[in-house]
Amino acid sequence: MSKIKQDSIPTNVTEVFKKSGLKLKNYRSASSFEKDLIKFIKRNEVLHLCTSKNDAPRSTPVGYMSRGLTFYVLSEGGSKFSNLKKTKRSLFRLQNPIISLMISGVTRDCRHGGKR
Fold first, then answer.
1. Could you identify which of 33, 53, 96, 104 might form a hypothetical disulfide with 27, taking C-beta atoms 3.0 to 4.6 angstroms apart as the criterion?
2. Burial 36-48 (b: 16+ CB within 10 A, else e)
3. Three-state SS string across the chain, please?
4. Residues 100-104: contacts with CB under 8 Å, at least 24 apart
């Protein structure tokens, strides 16, 4: 079974959240966190895909679809994909006015079943 580790939240941060009417949630299991994470992912439509070329960062808002925790980026193309072919590493961010989620990982080209 997967485990989840949550760091304790400083009292001053907890107070700010409480004054703002926001609740912080403590997860008892990785599966309960994953369930809420998937809900958050489904409520968003745009992710910011971050790549780099020659140490120059680039962030591009793109559409996406997801199946569980797997993301499929929808775009007209462009240099972001040639950057990914060279490095295979990327970072992307989803956010709403309250929550920001950053994920990094290794990319794979799924056009034509990933054969290209």
1. 33
2. ebeeebeeeeebe
3. CCCCCCCCCCHHHHHHHHHCCCCCCCCCCHHHHHHHHHHHHHHCCEEEEEEEECCEEEEEEEEEEEECCEEEEECCCCHHHHHHHHHCEEEEEEECCCCEEEEEEECCCCHHHHCC
4. 101/37, 101/40
**Spatial separation of the C-alpha atoms in residues 85 and 52, rounded to whole Å:** 11
- CA-to-CA separations, 3 to 6, 8, 32, 91, 93, in angstroms, rounded: 10, 16, 11, 23, 23
pLDDT digits (tens, 9 = 90+) for 8-20: 888 898 899 889 8
72 strand-pairing partners? 65
Residues in CB range of 25: below 8 A, 6 or more apart: 36
Q: What is the pTM of this model?
A: 0.65
Cα(84)–Cα(51) distance, integer angstroms: 7
Map tokens 């958050």 to a residue. 40
**Residue given tokens 């070329």 in the structure block:** 53
